[in-house]
Amino acid sequence: MTKLRIDLIAENLITIHPLLYKSISRPLRNCTSITPAGMFVLGNLKRHGILSMSDIGKYLSMPKPHITVIVNKLIEEGYVERQNDPKDRRIIHIHITEKGLSDFENIKQAISENMKSKLVMLNDEELEQLSTASQRVKDILISILSKE
Amino acid sequence: MTKLRIDLIAENLITIHPLLYKSISRPLRNCTSITPAGMFVLGNLKRHGILSMSDIGKYLSMPKPHITVIVNKLIEEGYVERQNDPKDRRIIHIHITEKGLSDFENIKQAISENMKSKLVMLNDEELEQLSTASQRVKDILISILSKE
DNA sequence: TATAATAGTTATATTTTTGTAACCGTTATA
DNA sequence: TATAACGGTTACAAAAATATAACTATTATA
Asked: Are A17 and B139 spatial neighbours (Cβ–Cβ below 8 Å)?
């Protein structure tokens, strides 16, 4: 019973994934130079605040050398900054800049606009349902697979 | 009011997207040689049946040359096959093979197993909620942004 | 029938993503 | 204090995704 439910959840998420990829990651290229991976980093910085390089690697499940590349590019463009930890000088804290925050919001807004053209097909009840259901999926997914 | 609701939906989906990427696309590499894009193609073939190259391009929002590359690789590995259209010989229909279907199911099962280790943290009520909510998100997203 | 439009492929180049090994500096520990 | 462990970077290689132009074959249309 529980197994069936878990399979259904996996099935649903596997179906949702390419639809989001198509309507979020893909349109990104047309409105910003930030790569999808860069957006993921900014999103985590916004949600969690300052993060070390290793933390970012855990949140994204990516090896550290890749994180260095992504963060370097974000720094080049002024979206994040490095901060040394005075207590443990091995650790480097990454924090999002004002520009990073505002550009991130603008890009989300652009994606939202893009999505609006599809969402207008829905009536008020469906909109309400999608709003509630996506909120629930988001909250639960964050709670179980956010870190590591 | 409606605008606020649409913004909330976009915000939720943008947050969900990297979580799915991390728990679906990334673990794929460890259990199969099929690329994420290949999985997207197989998923659409399973849902919609036989599709032309152009149809696949629309469902994935990818340019046709890229589709050729993806499909060629799927053919090499025996997951899909080409079929000529006798009525319009420009059109090539792609259909999924038995092997494609069964491997696709196995991979979904593997992802489901992988996810199970996270989902066990949820109690029955949360599991029920996630199941219902993800179903609703899936159905509505398919209805509005499946094609083109 | 000449021309335009469609479906798909080939070729090419660039960017992004992925992965691994080796390395440096710092901190912890035996 | 010598050694191991940790946090991060550099360097390198390879696969995947992206984009565009040019091309073939076929069908539609004027």
From this structure: no
CATH fold label, B2-145 = Arc Repressor Mutant, subunit A (1.10.10)
The residue whose CA lies nearest the C1' of nucleotide D12 is: A65
Q: A115 touching B, CB under 8 A?
A: yes
Distance CA A68, CA A64 (A): 6
Does the CB of A29 sit below 7 A from strand D?
Answer: yes
| Beta pairing partners, B80 | B96
Q: Which nucleotide is nearest to A69 (CA to C1')?
A: D9
What φ, ψ does residue B86 adopt, rounded to 5°? Answer: -65, -25
The model's pLDDT over B100-138, given as tens digits with 9 standing for 90+, comes to 999 999 999 998 888 888 898 899 999 999 999 999 999
Is residue A84 packed enough to be buried (19+ CB in 10 Å), middle (13-18) or exposed (0-12)?
Answer: exposed
Q: Would you say A70 and A94 are in contact if contact means Cβ atoms under 8 Å apart?
A: no
* Nearest-angstrom CA–CA distance, A137 and B139: 14
B136 and A130 within 8 Å at the Cβ level: the answer is yes
Proximity of residue A53 CB to strand D below 7 A:
yes
